[in-house]
2-hydroxyacyl-CoA dehydratase (marine sediment metagenome), 215 residues
Amino acid sequence: MKKIGIFDSGVDTPEEIILAAGFVSHRLFGDPTIEPDKANEHIPPTHCVWTRNLLEQAIKGLDKDIVGIIATHGCDRTNREFDIWLKCINLDFMFFLNSPFKRNKIALRFFIDDMKELITQLEDSFSVKVSSEKIKKAIILMNKVRSLLMEISEFRSKMVLKGSEFHALVKEVQQIDKNKAVKLLEAKLEELKTKKPTINKAYKKILLTGSDLDD
């Protein structure tokens, strides 16, 4: 299946709309194995390393199945860098989704209007129909994914699942077909239910903190 890439420093991109349009939602993550040499030609090297890394990946070529990008306003860097993507990256579809910081009625109406515009542009660009029924089905599917992740997450406190293992799982399901993600998560949940806690007094819990953009 074709994919729509998600360029989002938060979790505001409505994946349900992407699914309802018949695409796989594919969140873009940083690649620590590359240097942003080409990106540095467009953005000062003092700017956010994550956004420069994604631009570098895009310039070199994203996954061949990615036919479009939705960039969501999570910070000033994602906002301004989208202009560079428009000039430098050749994709069938590119859309900037405004995500308001406020949570009042005016902001809600603004966000709804922008999501409606996203639907319109997806329909026009790919000759698809994003119906209310398709969106409802996509919401059910995405909520199933989120529910399974929440249930699996509880096994970390039970010393059954490592934080690094959960992190890898979260990343994986954000880049694959969500029906496959449900099957993957259901299988993982059943596996965890059969495992015993790791009891080793030599193990110490360590809190890692820092930017939420570190992949």
Notes: The radius of gyration is 19 Å. The mean pLDDT is 92. The chain has two domains: 3-130, 133-194.
